[in-house]
């Protein structure tokens, strides 16, 4: 089968690979029908994720059709249409039982990381019963791809951890795909204002179209003073970090109101100064989280009822066989005005 | 009247000062019967708290007898025995209505800071109706002094913010008075283990007597490895910082289990590296808080029912006229084996 | 001044009454500019509320202009535009400090009940600082009247107590003004479905216009079976009772899914059979609540940001001098297709 | 093997039965080492539980040794010592994923109900990986039996649902084994007072020994007035129903303070009048729950750390072969002063 294979830092190849087979009674083999590329895949290609070894098929998002299931799989059978969660969950370990499936003792984020992933014609899914979801009839299949990772990540790590509530002023730092997914799911709680901050005017335009109420291009270094002006010196109730660098996390600290929440989504590569010399008395809460995928069912209901339209996040469409071009486009997001790309395997 | 007056960095004096008078209809004048010294008072004397000006009477804890009330005070009258909260709350502003009285627009921590405090024979208490509490008949008056600050601080900033629950493994970094008050109130939720970390063996002995299940003298720099061994490599559910320096906050980061809570109590003077490069995916929560005093009534019930014995925190007793000696003792806590000191004004 | 006065069961009169004067330092006198009529006022007129005595000026909702304040009032002054909360809160008692202002030891629901109310040219508001809210500049004044009672009641007693969340199926029994206010505020949390149940087709039409996704006219006694069909036999996540009779509370019990919430808003006059013989094992939660008014500020932000449009609730407008006609209209709501009426005092 | 078999209302028999065999890949066969009798077993014998058919082996509690596991069981193997949860959980269905395992689509309470139970030498446990727990080395095995049902039931349905917190006044109606288990687990949250109500003085004596602070023998019908006197007319913060009849649930309603929680544990056979005519405005919360078993691990940690001593609940010990006598004793609990009985299978 065709698959996109990591060949070491800076190198990837679309090549023929053996089709995966069942290895465990709880496995399923899924024929991929649609997949996508994540910012994390770009990190991997830079060599930033040491757990990913050469020869690994990349990708941890996608939907497909069940091809075959192991003997202990009870909730899926050949022919079922499924969403693949980026988080593999055994549902048995103490972490899974607490709902913290990201830290599953036998799963977590393993697809396209420590086992082969979804940017291929077929993929093996361990613990299939609790790592796949049924796609309802008549659902928009492109919308379903957004449930693998980006929507639950924005919702769980940003919106739920940030405790967004009606009437709040929310700032989202970073208007890339994950920041925009956070924006879409923040709206489920009807905050009074969503301030979107980025350095790319195109992305800010998109954010406006998605419902952001205020836009700040932070290129001039004045984001903090503008936000403090907008909030009459009070700061924001919720600051969501969706970039992953010290400057943006620092901005969160400088704009948070007393009693506010800073919710980190970004994948960080270095430590950040935490200004406890001022924050110690400010009654703030800072959270970090790797998505657990425990809200995917809730988000699915929200989509099927027409209240969340994630296909807005999709900017480009390719065939799976064009995956190299898709990476080219997604990897030059600013130039290409790319958000999420869909790769279809017919 | 006699009062302990701040005279600039390193300088304080017990001297005659004018007796305070009512300034506002919501004020009360309280005759102090017992007061105490807080670690924050030592910070002030070092010159670390710029809001405190020369000539200020220090002290934000104590109990006393109402001497006089303003015309709008309805819940207290002359002769009532009262606990003085270290947090003055107008109960009217948006912060107070949200229960975040520490950020009261007209109050917060002002006693012994921006207005004269309690280390004196009399003190003026603004917003008396919502900044004082009645002392029940037959209550142990020394126990009541511990409700001004140290118990609600340990409980709100450490135990509640840390979400301590039955079965948890809790680490408290710092076995000074505030760490010990945290220990006493953590026990209200029956964690499985309370690990106490300090550099002073005497304080660790006290912690053991108070119910700590494991003790670590961190002088040798091996606290982290010991805790990871104790917890079979998993880390602790709750890490409470009760010192206020980078090293102890960093220790919290290194011992926290995935999904755990780091609750900061310490007053910090500088920023601390936050290790987002590892913590971003660990689903942890970090909180800061200045005590709000919203649980004082709950703690009072716990004391009067005999389930919390805060007088254990008291190591030395003085007359108010001996306040200079009391500072000498409290300021040399390790040498004097001092915890909280009680100053009585007869 | 003109005022609407209760004259015993079935009797009311618009008559001249003495203008109220300050009685306490915490009082304010408000000149009413707009008021409205509540379903509770009709209950009073039936003689169902024994705390209301003959000679009482009715009404607990409205907005106005501060005419005069007592000496301890600090947050309002003559000329301020204010919303009057139906709940008077001293902010000092234990209930108020817990946010349960409905049970304020010196307040609660007293306006138009145990003290004179708002259907008059002037009203005296006790504990003015914590029982009034400032109206922002440029706010729609009719929308502000909806913040006195009906919006926080629907939101606190129905939506918050019912724990409405994204993706939920919510049933609201009763499409009168309070049920419709519940519908408007339930939408703040983006449930997947809002099923509205009533016996009046006009009100169901209004509910549809307001965003209900499914309508059931329960006149034929088949509401339960229809809802169970709609939910594939599972039942609803949240059932909100907004009528106040045994039949509607029983319906809630018969349609609630395991793990669901039944939130009672209705004012009941008799007991209701609770079917513990089936519900004991269904993991359900039943709540009751008299509105506390603690979310009025949040709802105000939601209105001023344009995300909640409460003027939809207003069907008729009168002058205050036409209050007798207004009661006639509001009291024949079905025939008059009346929702909330606005009474203006120019 | 020997097993206690239900033979229709009023009839049971200790008889030879075929040893259970694996039926599904997720099954385990457990050799019972200790089991016990539940009040529910007595209900079954009265014919009150129609799902239990003649020929069923009774019992849903116990510990044992794994004898054999199905091919998909990964967390247990032959020889492991295990606690059997009374709730069988597939961990895959939507209810299990929400933590509401009591309503597992393929499990829930099935042992000794719709499939054969634990009062036998061997038992088949479906979904073994998520329905069994490992017994730690050196644990007191009798204490472990209390984790099958009675402790999590008291804790989840009574203490957690009742939101018991430090300083609260808690009333527990019913001092039978389940009421006493509730008392033991309520103490984990250090309420100020635990008032125990029963008609049996012996059980009240036991409650006192277990830590109840106030005792009421309700035989004289004056429980309500006594509790209102004890609480200065205010009522209790939490009322826990642990009997299952209308009179005791009604008592809960009459003693609950505004803002309080009524947590039902009792298995009810008929409906109960809910006094909404008074409670509608009292801001109370009523909960029902069938135990989910989601806190068993937490309670296990609490036991192994020595902070919960459930063996206090055990009054009598028998051999499994004496199970008929054990029922005789347990069924005449008042006369025999029986609490929980332990049946050992050597």
Structure description:
The structure is a homotetramer of 346-residue chains. Chain A is an alpha/beta fold. Chain A has two domains: 2-149 and 293-344, Quinone Oxidoreductase, Chain A, domain 1 (Alpha-Beta Complex), CATH 3.90.180; 152-287, Rossmann fold, CATH 3.40.50. Helices cover 26% and strands 25% of the residues of chain A. The first copy, chain A, has twelve helices and 16 strands. Chain A has helices at 39-45, 94-97, 141-145, 150-160, 177-186, 201-210, 223-230, 246-255, 276-279, 296-304, 323-331, 333-336; strands spanning 2-6, 12-16, 28-36, 62-69, 81-84, 122-125, 132-134, 169-173, 193-198, 214-217, 236-241, 256-264, 272-274, 285-287, 314-319, 340-344. In chain A, the strands form three sheets. In chain A, strands 3, 4, 5, 6, 7, 15 and 16 form a seven-stranded mixed beta sheet that branches. The first copy, chain A, has a six-stranded parallel beta sheet with strand order 10-9-8-11-12-14, sandwiched between helices. In chain A, helix 4 (150-160) crosses helix 5. The longest helix of chain A is centred in the middle third of the chain and has 11 residues, at 150-160. Chain A is globular, with a radius of gyration of 20 Å. Chains in contact: A-B, A-C, A-D, B-C, B-D, C-D. Strand 14 (285-287) of chain A pairs antiparallel with strand 14 (285-287) of chain B, so a sheet runs across the interface.
């Amino acid at each position: 089968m065709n698959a996109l294979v990591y060949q070491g830092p800076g190198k990837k190849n679309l090549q023929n690979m053996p089709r995966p087979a069942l290895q465990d009674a709880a496995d399923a083999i899924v024929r991929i029908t649609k997949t996508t590329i994540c910012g994390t895949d770009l990190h991997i290609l830079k060599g930033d994720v040491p757990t990913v070894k050469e020869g690994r098929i990349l990708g941890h998002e996608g939907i497909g059709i069940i091809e075959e299931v192991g003997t202990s799989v009870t909730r899926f059978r050949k022919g079922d249409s499924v969403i693949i969660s980026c988080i593999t969950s055994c549902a048995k370990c103490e972490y899974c039982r607490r709902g913290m499936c990201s830290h599953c003792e036998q799963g977590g984020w393993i697809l396209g990381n420590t086992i082969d992933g979804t940017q291929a014609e077929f993929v093996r899914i361990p613990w299939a019963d609790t790592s796949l979801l049924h796609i309802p009839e008549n659902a928009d299949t492109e919308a379903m791809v957004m449930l693998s990772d980006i929507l639950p990540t924005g919702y769980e790590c940003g919106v739920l951890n940030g405790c967004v509530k009606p009437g709040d002023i929310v700032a989202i730092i970073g208007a890339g795909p994950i920041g925009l997914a956070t924006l879409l799911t923040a709206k489920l709680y009807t905050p009074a204002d969503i301030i979107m901050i980025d350095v790319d005017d195109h992305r800010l335009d998109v954010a406006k179209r998605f419902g952001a109420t205020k836009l700040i291009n932070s290129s001039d270094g004045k984001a903090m003073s503008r936000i403090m002006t907008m909030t009459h010196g009070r700061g924001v109730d919720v600051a969501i970090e969706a970039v992953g660098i010290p400057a943006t996390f620092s901005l969160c600290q400088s704009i948070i109101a007393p009693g506010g929440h800073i919710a980190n989504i970004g994948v960080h590569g270095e430590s950040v100064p935490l200004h406890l010399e001022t924050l110690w008395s400010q009654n703030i809460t800072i959270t970090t989280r790797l998505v657990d995928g425990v809200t995917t069912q809730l988000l699915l209901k929200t989509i099927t009822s027409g209240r969340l339209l994630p296909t807005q996040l999709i900017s480009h469409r390719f065939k799976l066989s064009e995956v190299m071009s898709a990476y080219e486009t997604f990897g030059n997001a600013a130039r290409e005005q790319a958000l999420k790309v869909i790769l279809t395997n017919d």
